[in-house]
Amino acid sequence: MELTQKLTEGKTKIVYAHPEDSALAVLLHKDGITAGDGARRSEIPGKGALAGRTTANVFALLNRAGIATHFVAAPADTCTVVRRCAMIPLEVVMRRLASGSFLKRNPAVAEATRFDPPLVEFFLKDDAAHDPLITPEQIAAQAVATPAEIAQMAAEGRRVFAVLEQAWAELDVTLVDLKIEFGRSETGALLVADVIDNDSWRIWPGGDKSRMLDKQVFRNATQVDDELLAGIRERYALVAELTDAWSAR
User: Fold this and answer.
1) What would the pLDDT profile of 194-244 be if each residue is shown by its tens digit?
2) CA dihedral in degrees (35, 113, 159, 27; nearest 10)?
């Protein structure tokens, strides 16, 4: 597949127009890893293929569960074919256990406090403002999404979380939290979109934070060196291998 028309490029992927179908796009997954709104950047050879593989596995599982997504196919690990949609500039975060930024904003809450149902938070995608927390009322007032869309994103986000939480639990891994994004199809329908890979969640094998497999290892590091990056790659490879069980490929 020859990709020539670039639509947009982010920190970890490039989006191209599909060369044969104007209703589709192609995500090309990059080897970069970032933290701190891009202040910390590194390259991990092969990470793009591992991220793409995990994304395909996750979206295949969601599609089989009847959740509307933009995922169509993964002709290669680095390449994901999706339905074109207009992305909504929000990160929708579901939290089962209190961790990360939630604790910084709520210091009186103990780490790993359980939320049942999962707590849903919205963050406006704005690097210059460090992706601030935004309320449903502010989202509607700023015309980012309608009240009906906001409610749907929260409900669908919890459905996505439930499917992935169960799938991880069967592997004795605790899904602590999860970030997803939504887009609008050509008909205006909301689709779970973008990517869901090892940068999108916190996962603790056996519920043990010290064994975390996700991007938080990179965020927490006081020094980035070849040994650290090799260890992160091993974690991403393990996650791709574990999620292969979810794929219908």
Assistant:
1) 999 999 999 999 999 999 999 999 999 999 999 999 999 999 999 999 999
2) 10
pTM above 0.85, yes or no: yes
CA distance 192 to 160: 9
The pairing of strands 90-97 and 133-134 is: unpaired
Domain ranges across the chain: 6-83, 86-224
* Lookup: tokens for 22: 């104007």
Distance CA 42, CA 218 (A): 10
Nearest to 246 by CA among 20, 1, 53: 53
Q: Tens of pLDDT along 78-114? A: 999 999 999 999 999 999 999 999 999 999 999 999 9
**19 upstream amide cis, omega within 30 of 0:** no
Fold of 86-224: D-amino Acid Aminotransferase; Chain A, domain 1 (3.30.470)
In CATH, what number does 6-83 get?
Answer: 3.30.200.20
What is the rounded CA–CA span in Å between residue 4 and residue 106?
Answer: 46
CA dihedral (137, 140, 144, 149) in degrees, to 10, reads 100
